[in-house]
Amino acid sequence: MWTGLATVCVFIGSAVSQGTPVRLDSSDWWSYTRQEELPEQEPFQKPNFQHREPPEATFQIAGVTLGETWDFNEIRSRFGDSTEVQRGDAASGRNQLCYKSADNVHLIFEFGEVDGVLYLFKDGPKWKGSELCATSRIVSPTIATASGLRLGMGTSEVENILGEPSLATPQRLVYYFDYKRKTSAKALAEFRDSNPKMSGAEFSKNFEYADGEVYIETRFVGGKLNYLAISRSETY
Question: Is pLDDT above 80 for 9?
Fold first, then answer.
């Protein structure tokens, strides 16, 4: 996994747990955060970042926005109760909530050390903990992000929404974005409450803007989208 952010002060999607998570292994083949545990198969190459912020609709699905201050309880209130799963440690540590449809479409929310990620995919190998995925009436083959990303799309449809990819193969489109976002008045007030002794100049330097990174991966089988991962982090 690539991150160009050396110091992480605040992650805007920090998860709040309910109860004790179930600790499991790293058989979650679909997890982007899991890459931190895998040995490098080839020399590392810095990805080609696109210096723009994707539209906010890219991160919205079924009334939940990836990257806002929300927690697993908020997700449960929308999709229903589900067992929280914990995997990995340190940079690869991740907490997950999994939902599925009756016909094996999965929607998974994951929080890592610095990233919040959502996954949408159909079928694929089983993994340890797949039996803990809760069936939700909201999850279906037609569920989509507010920007229109959904399973079954062709590559050209994905590019119409996201633009030219950073990396493209016949089976995969990958997007890397980085950007700066002006901090909202609400967030600034919260940061000021947490840092009452910081001078005005120092506070402005540290919190006026957030540095954001986004990773989006789409995989295709038979020319149709069958896996979507959207990762987002913002740091100060």
Answer: no
142-171 burial: b if 16+ Cβ within 10 Å, else e: ebbbebebbbebebeebbebbeebbeeeee
Distance CA 145, CA 177 (A): 18
Q: Calculate ∠ Cα 180-182-186, nearest 5°.
A: 140
pTM listed for this prediction: 0.87
Q: Which two tokens stand for residue 52?
A: 């723009």
Q: Are 18 and 72 in contact (CB under 8 A)?
A: yes
pLDDT (tens digit per residue) in 184-212: 787 788 888 989 989 989 988 888 888 99
The burial class, CB within 10 Å (0-12 / 13-18 / 19+), for 66 is buried
CA distance 56 to 59: 6
Q: Which residues contact 176 (CB under 8 A, 6 or more apart)?
A: 2, 47, 48, 49, 50, 166, 213, 214, 215
At 84, list the tokens: 């929280």
List the one residue out of 21, 26, 70, 16 whose CA is nearest residue 232. Answer: 70
DSSP letter for each residue of 150-171: BTT--HHHHHHHH-S-SEEETT
How big is the chain, counted in residues?
A: 236
Domain boundaries, the chain: 49-180+211-235
User: Is there a contact between 174 and 50 (Cβ–Cβ < 8 Å)?
Assistant: no
Evaluate if residue 68 carries a pLDDT over 70.
Answer: no
State how far the Cα of 133 lies from the Cα of 100, in Å rounded to an integer: 6
- Specify the pairing of strand 94-100 against strand 134-135: parallel
